[in-house]
Design a protein that fits this description.
7 helices; four-stranded antiparallel sheet; about 30% helix; alpha/beta; about 230 residues
């Protein structure tokens, strides 16, 4: 992950709305720019729209209206295949649930996460081993998820997100299933990885975690109601 000029925009939303059946307005005209290399915490109560904003930024969902730009690309007209390729190469996801295969080793869980990059298995396993060593799990390469602690499983999930060297890391409540000590280790690791040049956007309900970020976006009722930098 190479650092880029800080005045470049990694993620951009312009007047983005997202409506679900039944008249649910998850996003109401959201506009925001997130620069390359920014580390941003998105906070807000349950139902504020923060997870929906993250899934729209990550192209996992399409907006009902508005402009979405990811890594300099306007994705509105992109096909599902093109969006899958964008996610495969440019975006790393970390979720609250680890989403690991219990029957696979840590290496193969990470390598499997790069399946859609088109790289051969040998190269994917090599990248997986490097990523696991990077997150401090070089001694757990052959362990399966049931043999790992919660903190270790989340580290495997982070290794899966960074193994392809994405320019954007999107994390949705990554400490939600962890104790406070493991959670702080995970946040510190994400900060460290982002400091190498990736853009980090993290959703959290924990104000203590949010205070450790240089930029904090506050959401409520599908709108951005605060945006501050330290």
């Amino acid at each position: 992950m190479e650092a880029m000029a800080t005045d470049e925009v990694a993620l951009r939303l312009r007047d983005v709305t997202k409506e679900y059946p039944g008249g649910v307005h998850a996003l109401r005209g959201v506009s925001v720019d997130i620069g390359v290399g920014d580390q941003v915490a998105v906070v807000g109560p349950s139902g504020s729209g923060k997870t929906t904003m993250l899934t729209v930024l990550g192209t996992l969902e399409r907006p009902s209206a508005g402009v979405v730009q990811v890594a300099g690309r306007d994705v509105a007209g992109s096909s599902d295949v093109e969006l899958a390729g964008l996610r495969a190469h440019e975006i790393g996801f970390v979720f609250q649930g680890f989403h690991l295969q219990d029957t696979m080793s840590a290496v193969d869980n990470v390598a499997n996460g790069m399946l859609y990059t088109g790289e051969p298995l040998r190269k994917r396993r090599e990248a997986a081993r490097e990523a696991l060593e990077r997150v401090g799990l070089g001694h757990r390469l052959t362990h399966r998820p049931p043999q790992l602690s919660g903190g270790e499983r989340q580290r495997v999930a982070i290794a899966r997100a960074i193994a392809k060297r994405p320019v954007i890391i999107l994390a949705d409540e990554p400490t939600g299933n962890l104790d406070s000590s493991s959670g702080q280790e995970v946040i510190s690791l994400l900060h460290e990885l982002a400091a190498e040049g990736a853009t980090l956007v993290l959703i959290t309900h924990d104000q203590g975690i949010a205070e450790g970020f240089s930029r904090r976006i506050q959401m409520r009722d599908g709108e951005i109601v605060g945006d501050e930098r330290q």
